[in-house]
From TrEMBL:
Main location: endoplasmic reticulum
Keywords for the protein's UniProt record, in alphabetical order: Endoplasmic reticulum, Glycosyltransferase, Transferase
Intracellular or extracellular location(s): Endoplasmic reticulum
Family listed: Belongs to the glycosyltransferase 28 family.
Ribosomal protein in keyword set: no
One Pfam family here: Glyco_tran_28_C
PANTHER family: GLYCOSYL TRANSFERASE-RELATED (PTHR12867), N-ACETYLGLUCOSAMINYLDIPHOSPHODOLICHOL N-ACETYLGLUCOSAMINYLTRANSFERASE (PTHR12867:SF6)
Protein name per its UniProtKB record: Glycosyl transferase family 28 C-terminal domain-containing protein
InterPro entries referenced in this protein's UniProt entry, alphabetically: Alg13-like, Glyco_trans_28_C
Annotated ranges, domain Glycosyl transferase family 28 C-terminal: 4-127
SUPFAM superfamilies according to UniProt: UDP-Glycosyltransferase/glycogen phosphorylase
Length: 170
């Protein structure tokens, strides 16, 4: 059984993302999904969910999962890159009241060119990626251009040197 790790970050709720994945899980009971859902109000019924994870548990899930699903937060993006996992990224949307501005769209635009990063913006796109999750390839399984690999390595190296790196991971 493959493991999918869903993380919404800890600073803001992302019920829309959790709800879409939960509904997909209801129709796909053979896929194990573990989620860190933060402060959201929606309580999933078909996935294993917890509000917060300690750093160690987060790292174990990021290491052991087949696929990560996340908002466009840098901590989640970096965890997926660090562990060589494919990442389906759905930016929070100001129109849905999920953030105060659409800065995650800018992050998604810049990051979506990296190998193994798949950006979605709505339920239909996310469900399509989930339906085909076995076909999503990890960054190290893809033919990335030298510039893409260099960018990913630079970002990881830079972030790991920041004193607040540990707090970015959750």
């Amino acid at each position: 059984m493959s493991l999918i790790f869903l993380t919404t970050g800890t600073r803001a709720p992302f019920d829309r993302l959790v709800r879409i994945v939960d509904h997909w899980a209801e129709k796909n009971p053979g896929v194990q999904i573990v989620a860190q859902i933060g402060t959201g109000r929606y309580r999933p019924r078909h996935i294993e969910a917890t509000r917060f994870l300690c750093r160690g548990d987060y790292q174990v899930l990021a290491r052991d999962c087949r696929l990560m699903i996340a908002h466009a937060g840098m901590g989640s993006v970096l965890s997926a890159l660090e562990h060589g996992k494919p990442l389906v990224m759905m930016p929070r949307n100001d129109l849905h009241g999920e953030c105060t501005n659409d800065h995650q769209f800018g992050t998604a635009r810049r990051i979506s060119g990296l190998p193994g990063v798949y950006t979605v913006h709505n339920a239909a796109q996310l469900i399509q990626r989930l339906d085909n999750h076995h076909e999503l390839r990890a960054p190290d399984q893809m033919q990335a251009s030298p510039r893409q690999l260099e960018l990913a390595q630079f970002i990881m190296g830079f972030i790991k040197q920041l004193p607040q790196y540990e707090s970015l991971e959750n």
